[in-house]
Amino acid sequence: MTRSELKRDILHGAIGAEYLESRMREGWRPVALEWERQAEGEESKPASREEVPFGLRVSGDCLHLEEDPTELAVLSSMMEMMIQDVSLTGVAEELNRKGFRAREGSPWNAAAVFRLLPRVVDVAPRIVTDAQWEARRKRLARVAWNS
Questions:
Q1: Which of 91, 89, 71 lies closest to 80, judged by CA?
Q2: What pTM did the predictor assign?
Q3: Does the pLDDT at position 2 exceed 70?
Q4: Which of 6, 33, 129, 139 is 20 to 30 A from 13, comparing alpha carbons?
């Protein structure tokens, strides 16, 4: 089975035929073009790019988003620890202990965990079904009752 590689070049000038031919000889094929220009009138602001939500990634065909299993495992672990009332620092330490890294490759810290809290809330219903949540709630109630 073959896999696709994606490469993104940041250009600082015009694209010449030689550049395109060189990439094609290396086996690359163009899949998208993005254009930018200065507009008349208001002061130019950098174009805002919407970040791919944590837990998702751009699919191989670059046409849609698909689930990222590693990032979903991070979100699931975070949710589990938050249910157990683990501190943000504790969550970060456990994610690092398990070998998970933030998207940019850095170790987790409490601030990075905090920034993902809205995403955990957003994804939680897809990670834990209603039946699983009800079973967990009953189990937690029994533990509290026996304490």
A1: 91
A2: 0.60
A3: no
A4: 6
Average pLDDT over residues 92-96: 97
Query: Residue with structure tokens 């250009």?
Result: 11
Interaxial angle between packed helices 88-97 and 69-83, expressed in degrees from 0 to 180 and rounded to the nearest 10: 140
**How many angstroms separate the CA atoms of 98 and 82, rounded?**
16
Amino acid at 85: D
Q: What are the C-alpha distances in Å from 46 to residues 8, 13, 36?
A: 19, 17, 10
* CA dist., res. 114 & res. 144, Å (int): 27
Residue 82 CA to residue 75 CA, distance in Å, equals 10
Residue 58, strand partner residues: 65
Closest by Cα among 63, 39, 36, 58 to 47: 36
Give percent of the chain with pLDDT exceeding 90.
41
